[in-house]
């Protein structure tokens, strides 16, 4: 199975930026999922004139994984890249989707324009996650 460093996952996410559809915000984002079976799934943000129908890069990647047949909790790592001065963290809608599809200890790699990488986890970026309808 291919092995991927966090640097290589971040680089893959960065290479997606030209594919983002972001004519309104001019804020391209790329996200890469490393799946448990070693496959890579990519996503970019896809904006809409309504603004509200916009889909973030992270959700595009996760929804693509589901469409390809992956079940929940089959993600090994996530990398997110933008062209930002500071680290670009997933929005809170995407964080909730990450909770649904990732184990809590899944690493999340963030980056910024100077290439530095910030490593965190799903549980660190979503403390006290809502994840059950048990009553
Ligand atoms: N965006 C993402 O794709 N991922 C994030 O983590 C933050 C925000 C997108 C949504 C929108 O197209 C643009 O960035 C500006 O918010």
What structural category do the secondary elements indicate?
Answer: alpha+beta
Radius of gyration: 14 Å
Give the number of domains.
1
Strand adjacency order, main sheet: 2-1-3-4-5
The first-level CATH class is given as Alpha Beta
N- to C-terminal distance = 42 Å
Low-confidence stretches: none
Principal-axis shape equals globular
For the record, the CATH architecture stands as 3-Layer(aba) Sandwich
Largest β-sheet summary: 5 strands, mixed
Secondary-structure element order, N to C? HEEHEHEEH
Count, helices? 4
Indicate the CATH topology: Cytidine Deaminase, domain 2
CATH superfamily heading: Cytidine Deaminase, domain 2
Quaternary assembly: single chain
- Which kinds of small molecule does this entry bind, naming each only once? tetrahydrodeoxyuridine
Total beta strand runs: 5
GO biological process, one term: nucleobase-containing small molecule metabolic process
Domain CMP/dCMP-type deaminase: 4-133
GO molecular function, one term: cytidine deaminase activity
Organism: Abiotrophia defectiva ATCC 49176
Can you walk me through this structure?
Helices cover 26% and strands 22% of the residues. It has 135 residues and is an alpha+beta fold. The chain has one domain: Cytidine Deaminase, domain 2, CATH 3.40.140.10. The chain has a five-stranded mixed β-sheet with strand order 2-1-3-4-5. Strand 4 and strand 5 (117-121) form a beta hairpin. The radius of gyration is 14 Å and the shape is globular. The mean pLDDT is 97. It binds tetrahydrodeoxyuridine. Tetrahydrodeoxyuridine binds next to helix 2.
């Amino acid at each position: 199975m291919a092995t991927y460093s966090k640097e290589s996952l971040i680089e893959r996410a960065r290479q997606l930026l030209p594919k983002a559809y972001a004519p309104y915000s001019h804020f391209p984002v790329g996200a890469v999922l490393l799946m448990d079976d070693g496959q890579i799934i990519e996503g970019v943000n896809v904006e809409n004139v309504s603004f509200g129908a916009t889909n973030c890069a992270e959700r595009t990647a996760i929804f693509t994984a589901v469409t390809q047949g992956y079940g929940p909790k089959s993600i090994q790592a996530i990398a997110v890249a933008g062209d930002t001065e500071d680290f670009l963290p997933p929005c809170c809608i995407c964080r909730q989707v990450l909770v649904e599809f990732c184990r809590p200890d899944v690493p999340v790699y963030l980056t910024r324009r100077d290439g530095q990488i910030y490593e965190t986890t799903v549980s660190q970026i979503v403390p006290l996650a809502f994840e059950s309808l048990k009553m």
